Every structure is written in C-alpha cells, then in structure tokens.
Amino acid sequence: MLRVIMIALIVCNVSIAQHDTFFVAPNGSDTNSGTELAPWKTLQRACSIASAGVTILMKAGTYNEKVTMNVSGNATDGFITFKNYGNDVVKIDGTGKAGEQILLIRDKNFIRIIGLEFQNNLNQSFGTGIWIQGAGRNIEIRNCTFHDMRAANGGGDAMAISVYGTNGTSPLSNIVIDSNHIYNCEPGHSEALTLNGNVDTFQVTN
Questions:
Q1: Which of 45, 98, 126, 198 is 20 to 30 A from 32, alpha carbon to alpha carbon?
Q2: Which residues pair with 196 in a beta bridge?
C-alpha cells in the first residue's frame, strides 16, 4: 500500500518595523540611537539624519544652538515633523551662538515645525528665528513662539519668521504659518514676520 504523507509548510514573513519616531533630550547624546531611552542631544543631529515620514519629539529643556535643516520629506513618504513632546516646553536659544538664523531651512520640502520656542537671536545685522529660503514646498510652522529677536544697536534687521523665495524659476509654495506667537522683538529695519520674493500659495493664520 502506498501511503502518501502530505506536509504543510507554513512560511512566516517576519518584518522589523522601521522606527518612525525619534527623540531629542538635554541629557541625551548625539552618538545615541535616538530612541526614547537613548535620545539624541541636539536638534542639529535630528535635522541632519531624519528621513521622510519621521517625527522628532523634543523633551523639555533649553537647547543652546543654531541649526541648519539638512533633510527633506517627500510626497510619497510624508513630512518630517519636529515637535515638542507632549506639553513639554522646548526652547531653542541662540544666545552666544554665531550665525544669523536660529533655524535655517533652505531648498527643503515637506517639513513641519510644531510647538517649539525660539529665543535670543541678539545683536543681528540680518537675522531670523526661522528663515525659509530658496525654493521648496510644503513647509509648515505651527504653534511656535518667538521672542527676543533683536537687531544690532544703530541699525540692522532681526525677524522672527522670514520666507524668502530666492530662486527665480522655482518658488517656495504651500507655506503654512499658523497659530504662532511673536512678542518682545526689535526687528530694526525689517518686520517681525515677512514673506517676499518668489513665494506662492502661502497662508498666515491665527
């Protein structure tokens, strides 16, 4: 008698989910992995390594740095979002740091800045809390606070938020500036909030 034995093979596909949330905290280290238990220390680290679709949560504290955004989101994978953790008060403080901008966003796309406080960009000849520059699209600044943006004595410019479309052929588009608080600034020859140059499809609300 021929006995047929049938063996069912079950193939299990095991995938390891990619982290979509990373953390920054004053007691962290930029050599850490960026998890909640091993956070990064600086916003600059996050702005240099984050990828599209990722959220960066910043823990309470004062971060004494000036930062350049080196990453972009995209239409497929989504925004890169930088925001405060829960109700934490997160201050990005330019005191004693060289440079004109506390946060420079140049030629970037799909970036959200939410719930952060920018302070002490002092003695500026032409400085800004957040400067969006060049070309790009889908950049949002929401629920942020800006104060103590101060022009140099005797002349200068010190803005809280500035959007400069400096590319003659490609605009800055879909710019959202919503529910921000700007106070106690001395803009000198300039404005506390300004959009100029090649900028389209923008909104400034609340």
A1: 98
A2: 164
Contact 150, 119 (CB under 8 A): no
Claim: this prediction has a pTM higher than 0.85: yes
What is the secondary structure of 143-179 as a DSSP string? S-EEEEEEEPTTS-EEEEEEEEE--SSS-EEEEEEES
Residues 36-85: tens digit of each pLDDT: 999 999 999 999 999 999 999 999 999 999 999 999 999 999 999 999 99
Q: How far apart are alpha carbons 53 and 170 in whole angstroms? A: 24
Separation CA 149–CA 30 (nearest Å):
28
Tell the residue number behind the tokens 């982290």, with chain if given: 19
Contact 134, 102 (CB under 8 A): no
- Tens digit of each residue's pLDDT (9 = 90 or more) over 125-135: 999 999 999 99
> What three-state secondary structure class fits 88?
coil
